[in-house]
Amino acid sequence: MKNPASKMKLSQIVFIISLFTTIYWLIAFNTNVYRYAFTGAIFDMTSFLLMISLYMLPVLIIALILRLKQRTPKLHYVSLGLLLVMLILIFGVYQ
């Protein structure tokens, strides 16, 4: 994390993973993934990994924000917001 380009690259990677995780869970909760055997199998194989990312990424992002302090890229805050909104949706709406 010596130069600003590496911080921006990391924030873009974290944002893409957060966006993919959010889209995955929105699709999983709003469609019947078990309608077809293939989609159900894919969901079963990937859901555990994406559940881990859903719970661990906010902790990682908060650690990055605390570590970088004033030089935190804005994409970290956007990624954290996406994941927190998804967690609120999971525990509030989809229960």
Which helices and strands occur, and which strands form pairs?
Blueprint: H1 4-30, H2 37-68, H3 74-93
Helix pairs in contact: 1-2, 1-3, 2-3
Summarize this structure briefly:
With 95 residues, the chain is mainly alpha-helical. The protein has one domain (4-93). It has helices at 4-30, 37-68, 74-93.
How would you describe this structure to a colleague?
The chain is elongated and about 50 Å long. It has one domain. The chain is mainly α.
Given the helix and strand composition, which structural class is it? mainly alpha
Can you count the helices? 3
Radius of gyration: 15 Å
Mean pLDDT: 90
Brief descriptors of the model:
single chain, 95 residues, mainly alpha, 3 helices, elongated
